[in-house]
Amino acid sequence: MAKKNSERMQVIKQSGSTPIGEKLLKIYHILYHNFGPQHWWPGESPFEIAVGAILTQNTAWKNVEKAIANLKKANLLTPKALYELPYPYLVELIRPAGFFNIKAKRLKNFLCFLFNEYNGNLTKMFAEETEPLRQKLLKVTGIGPETADSILLYAGNKPTFVVDTYTKRVLLRHHLIFEEADYEQIRNFFMEHLPQDTHLFNEYHALFVSLGKNYCRPKPLCEKCVLKGI
DNA sequence: TGCCAGGCCGGGT
DNA sequence: ACCCGGCATGGC
Length: 230
Prior knowledge:
- By secondary structure, the protein is an all-alpha fold.
- The protein has two domains: 16-38 and 161-215; 46-155, Hypothetical protein, domain 2 (Endonuclease III, domain 1), CATH 1.10.340.30.
- Helices cover 64% and strands 0% of the residues.
- The chain is globular and about 55 Å long.
């Protein structure tokens, strides 16, 4: 089941054989060396992770934690409970996460999708092939590419690469992509040059977030960045 | 105090 | 096809 780290690295080394793949792996190893394993996603169940993925849109994770805690305390962190919960209650519970009106709507959109298509059963949802499911998720209003990929990777353990603002910022500063590159292009960039390894994709995105929080804010601290000189 | 956070949508050109 | 305003709380 869980591969040993040494075995995993062997597989990864073999597959990252293009120059770009080598570079991406080099960056990965530097980040891993500096920040260590990230143990993402910080959530206890696939459903909690999916909810968190929607709540964290353009929002500090700290605020999302409060909202999740509210839902947990009220015993509402299940598909059925949230699906049946009237808007006004939902809005109040997720208030700390910001954008609460729109996020309540987005959560409901996801839940409607989950119940209409999979009888409210996440396991059934994740039984679908990754790409078709990704396309379906993207049609849900309020689920964009990053949210869809976060749900697929972190709640469903499916090999898809999550791209966020930090990721693009880092790649731009290291001249690995063009300014105009959109989400799909950046995602493809990683997925074409790296082995399709769920664990690698999991750690890599989490490490980018860690790097971004430490060094790669809009006001960059490139002088101190662990990737300086790469 | 002001800036920013693990985006995304919808209406206007 | 782009562009951009709006959404909102809480931490640093």
